[in-house]
Write a structure and sequence with these properties.
This protein has about 70 residues and is mainly alpha-helical. The protein is about 35% helix and about 5% strand.
Length: about 70
Amino acid sequence: MILVGWSTRAHERGSTSIVRPLHRLTKNIRPGAILLIHESDTHGAQRVALLSALLEHLAASGYQCVLPERKDLG
């Protein structure tokens, strides 16, 4: 496992709308940001909608999603 910290999170738990969580994720976005969205069986459709809207926003803003590079410590 690789430990990765996040720079901003959606606070989407308990939210029935994607509007506020999406705003929280995008208001201070910057290059290198790590965004946290939880996965959930009970709110799966809402999480998919949030992720879809976030990816659309990022693409429209010129960002692309990448995996963090692993840096061996040895």
